[in-house]
Amino acid sequence: MIQLHEIYEVIPLVLIAFAACAILVIEAFSKKGSSAVYGFSIITVTGAIAASFLSLNKELIIFNQFLRISNASVMFSVIILAGILITIIASKNYIEKENINFGEYYSLILFSVLGMMLMVFANDLLIIFIGLELMSVCFYVLAGFLRLRQKSNESALKYFLLGAFITGFILYGIALIYGISGTTNLAELYNQKKLFTNYVFIIGFALFLIGFLFKIGVFPFHMWIPDVYDGAPTTLSGMFSTAGKIAAVGTILPIILALNITNFKLIFSVAAVATMMYGNVIALAQSNMKRLLAYSSIASAGYIFVGVAAMNEFALKGIAYYLIAYTFMQLGAFIIVSILEKKDDGSRDYKNVDIDFYKGLGKRNPLMATFMTIFLFSLAGIPPFAGFWGKYYLFYAAIQANLIWLSVIGILLSLIGVYYYLKITVYMWFHESTDLVTAGYEKEPVSRSGIFATSLAVVGTVVLGLDPNMFFRIFKMIAE
Amino acid sequence: MIEINYYLLVSAVLFSIGVIGVLVRRNAIIIFMCIELMLNSINLTLVAFSSFLGNINGQIFVFIVMTVAAAEAAIGLAIIISMFRNKESLNIDEINILKW
Amino acid sequence: MTNELLILFFIVGIVMVAGGMIISHIIAPTSVNAVKEETYECGIPTKGTSKIQFKVGYYLFAILFLIFDVETIFMVPWAVVMRELGLIAFIEILIFLFIVILGLLYAYKKKALVWE
A407 with A395: CB under 8 angstroms? Predict the structure, then answer.
């Protein structure tokens, strides 16, 4: 039976669910509610982050064993919420620019966050499924939010068809797991021995895993990522590539660690190598900034899977650190692309997202160029930025797990990545702007919300880079 | 009393038909119907296991799956309609402006 | 024993249906002409192609129906065991209904329910 006091443990979830519904009602009843909705959603997410810290240092299983509160899940949910907060802050000027200034935008984002947090707090396959679908369904709509633009439509349709297809696989996996183990509860599942001697269970678990590899974008299941991120509204591409992936990693990682499936180590290693290679090599040939960042996010999924393959306690720490660094740098880079994007002029295509547009950006817009340089250096893994320490911890974890070959290959492949990140940096600072670009540039409005959001991301990237232990120290401090 | 294996076989066959349908058909709506077929075959699996194990969890799962399938159908149809308005075609071979 | 009955039932069923169709095909008088091959539309000549566009309003109703149709799936199991579950389940179903009604309210204010 549900105890009422258990609601105190899930205040962040309740807050977000309430706010998401409230925004829909506000939007329906007020004529010009959008700016109020913007402030309201920022306050909600900030409140949810603060409330998350209340649940630290509790190892609880609540709501009929459906939810589990642990330090790891709280940490993942805080990282997700931080990403969402930056996305929401940056969105205001962007959606005004693109003429999609509807309150539903924020409501859908909040509903998707609810799904993500349900996923990371889940202690039952049922809740994982509900959370995953809540997240995905909101993402399908958000990808097609620019409904007059063919690219956005196409991205939504591709995302939807592939996502729903993969949902079928996840569900079939869950059905087989349930059939063999007789339970959908994760804690009970962990207690059962000899599950992996049953080949039907292995098939079920593999199907379940495939679904999550798809959501994270690991090698054979990555093909949707560039198309979807290219076509979706730019701030939202940033959100899909950070918050969405973090939720999937935060759900599957504790399961992999708890089941301790060392047999899968080789599979994960190969997937990690293939993903890093694919992302980094194909990114070299890209001429569209959104696509380049999409491939860079595939490469990042590869780095994360180096940690997953390691499967030790360093890996959990390394992945958490990499994810928070990745949130700041990847989201920051996408937001800068969204700031520089041209205002909607009815042409039904994204303008000014080509790499050529970034030539001479250092002279035209020094602030944005500096920020972009910081994010790109961090993504490339150049010290002293956060991305460097993220990769360092991940490869360190792999070395500790006797996967030295994996970390060597990983380091070599991330050196390929340095090339295309530096290419853009060189374009920004050492090339002249093309005439076509300078002609229309000065008229662009300044995006205050975007600049504020990217400043937050820059602070995160730099501070975490200068003091890599700070993130864990803050958690420890609040916990005590 | 029919053995559980028959139920599982039927649902596996239905699931495979759905998967093949998704892979070979070219109309977005039909692909979507094949996905629904996959979800419903999984419902059959879950109910069969639930009855076999004497455990109610599987049937509760079926409720949730049906609800989610309805939500997905609503979203999917809306996306397909908005695509059709811009493109006037549902053939997924023609939906090709995003590549490389 | 039951298997044999089942097979017999199958065979008889097939023979009855197929036999009826074959016999009627053989003995029925047939006539082929242009008017008979035309699409039937209440006896008047057909106009235009069969691929016409429907008003978009229908889609909205269909989508809304899809959502509100499925809510019953949670109501009926609750209603069956309402007494045993007691007050907390009642409050939960009220919360659920409240959320559904919020959705309906949203659809109403966005004029999705207006037939134009």
Answer: yes
- The CATH number of residue B81's host domain is 1.10.287.3510
User: Which long-range CB contacts under 8 A does A344-353 form with residues at least 24 apart?
Assistant: A344/A97, A344/A98, A344/A99, A348/A148, A348/A149, A348/A150, A348/A151, A349/A149, A349/A150, A349/A151, A350/A149, A350/A151, A350/A234, A350/A290, A352/A437, A353/A234, A353/A288, A353/A289, A353/A290
Q: Torsions phi, psi of A68, nearest 5?
A: -130, 125
Cβ neighbours of C110 in A, within 8 Å: 28
Neighbours of chain B (3+ CB pairs under 8 A): A, C
Query: CB neighbours (10 Å) of residue C81?
Result: 10
Domain count, chain B: 1
Spell out which chain C residues touch chain A, with contact meaning CB-CB distance below 8 angstroms. Answer: 88, 99, 102-103, 105-106, 109-110
Q: Does A1 touch chain C (CB under 8 A)?
A: yes
**pLDDT tens digit sequence for A100-128:** 888 889 999 999 999 999 999 999 999 99
- Average pLDDT taken over every residue of chain A: 87
Tell me, yes or no, if B90 comes closer than 8 A to chain A by beta carbon.
Answer: no
Q: Which residues of chain B have pLDDT under 50?
A: none
Positive or negative, the CA dihedral A239, A242, A245, A246 is: negative
Name the minimum distance, in Å, from the CA of A94 to any CA of chain B: 22
Taking an 8 Å cut-off on Cβ atoms, the answer to whether B81 and C66 are in contact is no
Task: Note whether A208 and A174 are within 8 A (CB).
Answer: yes
Strand-pair partners of A68: A61
Among candidate residues A457, A421, A156, A440, the one with its CA nearest the CA of residue A335: A457
**CB contact at 8 A, A161 and B31:** yes
Q: Is the pLDDT of residue C25 over 60?
A: yes
**Look-up: residue for tokens 């990769």?**
A391
Tell me how far apart the alpha carbons of residues A349 and A347 are, in angstroms, rounded to a whole number: 6
Q: What is the SS3 assignment for A288?
A: strand
Residue of B67, B77, B81 with shortest CB distance to C70: B67
Closest to B27 measured CA to CA, from B78, B84, B74: B84
C-alpha angle A395-A396-A402 in degrees, rounded to nearest 5: 90
| Angle in degrees, 0-180, between the axes of helices A404-430 and A265-283, rounded to the nearest 10 | 20
Q: Are A28 and C106 in contact (CB under 8 A)?
A: yes
- Give burial (CB, 10 Å; 0-12/13-18/19+) of A398: buried
Average pLDDT on A70-85 reads 90
In terms of residue numbers, what domain contains B53? 4-87
User: Cα separation of A260 and A250, whole Å?
Assistant: 16
Domain residue spans in chain A? 4-479
Q: How far is B100 from chain C (nearest CA, A)?
A: 34
**pLDDT at A437 (0 to 100):** 60
ipTM computed for the complex:
0.95
Pairwise CA distance, residues C66 & A195, whole Å: 39
The yes-or-no verdict on residue A32 having pLDDT over 80 is no
Residue C54, burial from CB neighbour count under 10 angstroms (0-12, 13-18, 19+): exposed
pTM given for the model:
0.89
Across the interface, whether the CB atoms of C73 and B66 are under 8 A apart is answered yes
* Chain B (1-40) residues lying within 8 Å, Cβ to Cβ, of chain A: 8, 15, 18-19, 22, 28, 31-32, 35, 38-39
